[in-house]
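Final report, Chapter 2: Outcomes

The project's central promise was a pipeline that accepts a single protein chain and returns its three-dimensional structure in a standardized token representation, suitable for archiving and comparison. That pipeline is now operational. To close this chapter, we reproduce one record exactly as it appears in the project archive, with the input sequence first and the structure output second.
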Amino acid sequence: MGTGKRGLMATAVAVVCAVTVLAAPGTAFANPTPSPTPSAGPALAPAKDLEAVRKKLDKLYRAAGRATDEYNAAEEKADKQSTEVVELAKKIVKGQEKLKKLKDRAGAAAAAQYRGGGLPPEAHLVLSDDPQDFLDGAGRVREGHHATKGLLGELTRTQEDLEQYAKDASAQLKKLEAGRKAKAAAQKKIEKQIAQAEKVESALQKEEQERLAELEKEAANKAQTAWLDSGILDEINGKASEQGKKAVKYATAQIGKPYQWGAEGPRTYDCSGLTSQAWISAGRGIPRTSQEQWKQLRHIDVQDMRPGDLIIYFGDASHVAMYIGDGAIVHAPRPGRTVTIAGAGSMPILGVVRPDAGTGAN
């Protein structure tokens, strides 16, 4: 491709997307040791040390992102289990009401027999002197037997249903409790990784923080330039579907809003919260997490992608962004950053998925 487009995209890559791989914190970094003069103030860290800090922060925030995916998956599962428990509770209530009515009917039948002197209908029939009464009574006795048999059968089935509903509800409650524990554990992971990252960043002087930001941009630009130099953009010319256009419009309208793990808008987002809500706005529900988006949505070759498609990043599918055309993406990078536009090749691409089922473009 021409250098003009590459230069344009390199300029567009404003931030590094440091997100989601579950990795242990990096090793500790040595503090700079030169002796400052009394008037010089604290010495700044050498560039190689700041690069080490950048890599450490990248690992920490990617670990936090991975834990965020775990949290979102646990939350989604817990919501589903809660719904199932509620539905089972409704079935139990209806079953209890039905059982009460059936018992009332059985009690009424027993009371009627008592009023008849305690004799069964067959006995009254034998004692009848009228042949017509005998014939009419025989029919009623047969109907009564069928009704009684049906009533007893329905009582039994209703009781069995109630027992099964109770067992199912108990099992779902256990799953719900396990899901809540998994959600709490993921939250602790997130908070731990973010706290460690913030501690590392807070130890830097203002000038070091500015240089660190520049290093992040340089790393993203370098990766994007290498991706563009491969000539891949010359092969990517797909046009967005109507749903894709709506999804892109929604996602780009969120630019500038803060990243917040577990968030789905409208004020804050995490990476998959942004992409899932964008496609919901376009009329297409998709999985909540980047890993499930990778597993469940249709895979597309990179050269065939079009605006609205989702690019999945890193080997564990721990980050997702939306392709918006011209080699660019919109995404929610990581804590401390906002929804932004970046280069599609600024992070290691795992693959591309297409949320809308149709293949035609407009």
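Archive annotation: The helical segments are 3-12, 47-115, 121-126, 131-202, 206-229, 242-253, 271-281, 290-296.
This record, like all others produced under the grant, will remain available to the consortium after the project formally closes.
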